[in-house]
Amino acid sequence: MIDFKEVISEKLGNNIDVLKSDEIKALIEVPPNKEMGDYAFPCFKLAKEYRKSPMAIAEEISKSIPTGEVISKVINVGGYVNFFVNKEALAKKVITQVLSEKKDYGKSNIGEGKNVLIDFSSPNIAKPFHIGHIRTTVIGNALHKIYASQGYNTVRINHLGDYGTQFGKLIVAYKLWGNKEVVESSPIKELLKLYVKFHDEAEKKPEMEDEARAWFTKLENGDEEATELWSWFREESLKEFQRVYDLLDIQFDSYAGESFYSDKMQSVIDELKEKNLLVESEGTMIVDLSDENLPPALIQKTDGSTLYLTRDLAAGFYRKKTYDFEKCLYVVGSQQELHFRQYFAVIKKMGYDWYKDMVHVPFGMVALEEGTMSTRKGRVVFLEDVLNQAIEKTREIIIEKNPEAGDIDKIAREVGVGAVVFQELSNSRIKDYTFSWERTLSFEGETGPYVQYTHARCCAVLRKANQVVTPEVNFDLISDEDSSEVLKVIETFNKSILLAMSKNEPHIVTRFALDLAQAFNKFYHNNPIVVEDDGVRNARLALVEATRQSLENALAILGINAPEKM
Ligand code: ARG
After folding, report:
1. Which end of the chain is more exposed for a tag (fewer CB within 10 A), N or C?
2. Which residues form the Arginyl tRNA synthetase N-terminal domain (predicted)?
3. Which residue in the list 11, 25, 93, 127 is annotated as catalytic?
């Protein structure tokens, strides 16, 4: 297989003695427009070393590089050395590789033997699984697929919020106003009502907060009634979460949530004491982080009860011991930035350098058009409703446009859910955005259904041709501009995945899928595929199959199915 960048950096290396070959390779870019070439090497870095202008250096280098089988032309443009690759060699490389590797195209085993933990989704028990959770859930799942595709052993952890003072509140509310049958008929909606009512009432009667704290302490001490209620809330909530995970086809390797660490915090607290890191402050126990420029980390409240942070600390040690992770990612909203900085800083102060392997992967907030979402005020959009509406709408469109598509329920599910997931993965994580029903349910433009439709279009062409597609074709016949554009995108697949992995940004793979769909649709509109001429037909079909396979693989990495008909 030819790696164009490799070939180019080797040729450049023969002319540049001040950079190592991997440094050269890392500098190679793709020029903004294709008339300028397929790859470009900037000479600005060299200008200092050689005490010459970048233009002069580019001119010199471009003249001394011989062209040949892979590189067909070398020119210099404003301080860049630009390379034109042989389009036939490109076609041969891409087609041969995709058609032989199939579902493995894009994969590697660079992560073999290394554990990557992904803490994601992690909803709070007895609270709705709302649209705000979709980001952590689908970004986390995509990161799992991205790492797994490169051979890492991933561990998907759902760090359920199943512990903490809010359970005291819920117990108080349930004992005052709750009804077993009503809760069982619609657990989360009912528990949410109780939670909201608690906050309304507690505003008038602040002593209710004390009562709630007392119930949580009871729970921490293993009180029977408290434990029974708590575990019932937990079970009923999990049943609801499971329905959403089933819709999204998302699985976890561990559901060890906050409560799992209730008996694992003491040893961390003891170690903090031993290391003289735990200090008393107004009755609470804290770790001073002023030398890290952070506010103190609160470890224990006045009444001795523990906090979210205490449980994360215990989880960190448990995970390090259990999985000896290479990396532990926390896919959690940007509002928790400070929490994670404090958490990692405490581990650092304790003298462990694996704090460096823990990464907070933040994402922006989802707001509603009517304002910020608020669980306490009951202003939420349920994720399950969003997914179900997307499926419904898709079903209507398919029945109208393509009633013969086959298993309409299955397709509606794959496309409807795919639309929601793809939208979530379309932007860089950190951007806040406002949830809009209209945009989520619109299938026009740069959407998941558009990519899925392009995949189905490839399938339709292949069905129509009804012949065996092989990589033994005349590559010269797909070295024209439209074909080369498609092939050039396909060629970047593995690099896109690696980049997405290094930045923990699945949207880079989303972008790949959109670029490929666009390039392919252009090719499709300009070139008839199932033509009389055997040579042309075979070559173009090979290109269609390479596109189809690459789209399928890219969608799979995003956690989206690729139906053959829609
Ligand atoms: N349950 C938390 C929330 O909904 C997220 C937990 C994230 N994971 C963690 N280890 N802190 O905000």
Report:
1. N
2. 6-85
3. 127
Domains of the chain: 4-85 (3.30.1360.70), 115-263+307-368 (3.40.50.620)
Is the per-residue pLDDT at 373 higher than 70?
no
- As a whole number of Å, the CA-based R_g of the chain is 28
Q: State if residue 126 touches ligand 1 by the CB under 6 angstroms criterion.
A: no
- In the chain, what's the furthest Cα-to-Cα distance? 85
Whether the predicted pLDDT of 376 surpasses 80: no
Torsion sign (Cα): 398, 486, 90, 527: positive
* Residues 362 and 334: beta-carbon distance below 8 Å: yes
* Average pLDDT over the chain, rounded to an integer: 93
Q: Does an H or E element contain 22, and which?
A: helix 21-27
**136 ligand 1 Cβ < 6 A:** no
When mean pLDDT is compared across 164-173, 242-251, 293-302, 429-438, the lowest value belongs to 429-438
Please confirm, yes or no, whether 130 is among the known catalytic residues: yes
SS3 per-residue string spanning 315-371: HHHHHHHHHCCCEEEEECCHHHHHHHHHHHHHHHHCCCHHHHHEEEECCCCEEECCE
Amino acid at 233: F
- The residue type found at 14 is N
- pLDDT tens track for 456-477: 999 999 999 999 999 999 999 9
Average pLDDT rounded to a whole number, residues 289-312? 93
414 membership: H or E segment, kind and range? helix 408-424
Assign 372 a pLDDT band (cuts: 50, 70, 90): low
pLDDT score, position 561: 97
Instruction: Convert 229-247 to b/e letters by CB count within 10 Å (16 or more is b).
Output: bbeebbebbbebbeebbeb
CA distance 239 to 116: 27
Helices (H), 69-206: 87-101, 133-149, 166-177, 180-185, 187-204
Say whether pLDDT at 216 is over 80. Answer: yes
Any ligand 1 atom below 6 A from CB of 158: no
Query: Which atom of ligand 1 sits closest to the CA of residue 257?
Result: 10
Q: What is the pLDDT of residue 408?
A: 94
The yes-or-no answer on residue 133 being catalytic is yes
Residue-wise pLDDT tens digits, 491-545:
999 999 999 999 999 999 999 999 999 999 999 999 999 999 999 999 999 999 9
User: How far is the C-alpha of 366 from the C-alpha of 440, rounded, in Å?
Assistant: 13
For residue 85, give the 3-state DSSP assignment.
strand
Angle, alpha carbons 144-149-155 (nearest 5°): 35
258 lines ligand 1 (CB under 6 A): no
Q: Are 498 and 426 in contact (CB under 8 A)?
A: no
Pairing of β 327-331 and β 358-361: parallel
- Separation CA 432–CA 373 (nearest Å): 13
Helix (H) or strand (E) holding 243: helix 224-248
